[in-house]
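PROTEIN DESIGN WORKSHEET
SECTION A - STRUCTURE
LENGTH: 400
TOKENS:
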């Protein structure tokens, strides 16, 4: 890597950890990205479930270029009629249950979560929130407040005071649902937990959460920021499990590689943000026309190429190729969202080093540092899956 650029990166770009990956990217295409020296990396993260249609997807690039030529930012969100935004809202709603018919566009996942929490508080007139242990919903004050305790304590404690009235319950514990009561504005949860290391809902669990929310008049929010847009083998995980929440949060793949987030609800619930106070939630860049054009093109690509229907078979192929290796303890998987459990953080760190050398980009999970992530672009081919598994198996062979 260019040494000057590396030094400037470390000196002037705000850092998130003492040990960034420090790989320079020159270009990206499909499931690969390339360094300036021409080294190729298999992207098995997709920018954490962002690049579902592959890097530099020509349809998305074309939509972005066309929109940039027409117009970029015009006015704060919600005032002007911007065609890409309207078309995207209509299209995404047409793929969701009929009660989810109104999209509030923002720029990121954490912002989508913030907006959804405010909407639930405003609509119910209640102040308490129930979230799940090991849940990750973002890094802003509100979304950090609902990070699942006690595992999230490490990330939260330095930033207190955070939002009051938040209770964390154990994911998949049916008895813990008693904590949802008439003071609860909303339950927010990922239908499949991502950063917990891919945790799948137990049979009937999401239905039980829905039922409890209905009993006490709390809203149910699904954070589909990581699971949305085909990742689990259905367009949304809510389709996979047959449970309709009151609000869905989307981001990541929603922008087709551009920054876009949103929360989706019924028009009736959504309208409560428009009065008492008016401007209950506002954003300058929310639903940026270029991002909406990119997201709409990506969604169209997913539909036109039947990507969602191929996800389960692709995920199963990964699982079949890797599961019998003696170093693999377990594979937890929902479609192409996968955690390969090695049972020890030392072994995980060792394999991460090998992956970097061998041109594989993988990662650990925020609340699980014993498993590595496989969540490639949904466009990955059978041949690419086999080729990446050959490299992974070779690295697993070399684990002590
Ligand atoms: N919710 C989930 C489930 C996530 O995985 C993430 C990011 O990883 C977020 C919310 C936050 O999204 P963003 O980083 O765009 O704020």
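SECTION B - SEQUENCE
RESIDUE ASSIGNMENT:
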């Amino acid at each position: 890597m260019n040494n000057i650029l590396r030094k400037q990166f470390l000196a002037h770009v705000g850092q998130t950890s003492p040990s960034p990956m420090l790989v320079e990217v020159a270009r990206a295409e499909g499931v690969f990205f390339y360094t300036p020296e021409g080294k190729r990396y298999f992207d098995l993260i997709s920018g954490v479930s962002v690049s579902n249609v592959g890097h530099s997807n020509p349809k998305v690039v074309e939509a972005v270029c066309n929109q940039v030529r027409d117009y970029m930012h015009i006015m704060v969100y919600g005032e002007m009629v911007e065609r890409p935004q309207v078309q995207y809202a209509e299209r995404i709603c047409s793929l969701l249950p009929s009660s989810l018919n109104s999209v509030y566009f923002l720029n990121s996942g954490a912002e989508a979560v913030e907006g959804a929490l405010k909407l639930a508080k405003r609509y119910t007139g209640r102040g308490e929130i129930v979230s799940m242990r090991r849940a990750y919903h973002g890094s802003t004050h509100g979304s950090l407040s609902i990070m699942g305790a006690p595992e999230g304590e490490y990330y939260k404690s330095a930033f207190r005071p955070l939002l009051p009235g938040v209770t964390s319950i154990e994911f998949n514990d049916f008895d813990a649902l008693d904590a949802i009561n008439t003071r609860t504005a909303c339950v927010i949860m990922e239908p499949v937990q991502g950063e917990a290391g891919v945790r799948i809902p137990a049979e009937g669990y999401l239905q039980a959460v829905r039922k409890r929310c209905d009993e006490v008049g709390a809203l149910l929010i699904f954070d589909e920021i990581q699971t949305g847009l085909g990742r689990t083998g259905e367009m949304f995980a809510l389709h996979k499990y047959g449970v309709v929440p009151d609000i869905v949060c989307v981001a990541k793949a929603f922008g087709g590689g551009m920054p876009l987030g949103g929360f989706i609800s019924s028009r009736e619930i959504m309208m409560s943000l428009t009065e008492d106070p008016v401007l209950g939630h506002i954003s300058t860049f929310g639903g940026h026309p270029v991002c909406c054009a990119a997201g709409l093109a990506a969604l169209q690509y997913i539909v036109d190429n039947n990507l969602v229907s191929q996800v389960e078979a692709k995920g199963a192929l990964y699982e079949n190729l890797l599961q019998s290796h003696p170093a693999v303890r377990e594979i937890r998987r929902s479609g192409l969202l996968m955690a390969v459990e090695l049972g020890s953080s030392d072994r995980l760190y060792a394999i991460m080093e090998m992956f970097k050398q061998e041109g594989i980009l993988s990662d650990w999970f925020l609340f699980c540092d014993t498993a590595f992530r496989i969540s490639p672009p949904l466009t990955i081919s059978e041949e690419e899956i086999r080729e990446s598994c050959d490299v992974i198996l070779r690295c697993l062979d070399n684990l002590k």
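SECTION C - NOTES
The pocket of pyridoxal-5'-phosphate is lined by residues 48, 108-110, 113, 136-138, 190, 194-195, 223, 225-226, 251 (CB under 6 Å).
Residues 109-124 form the longest helix (16 residues).
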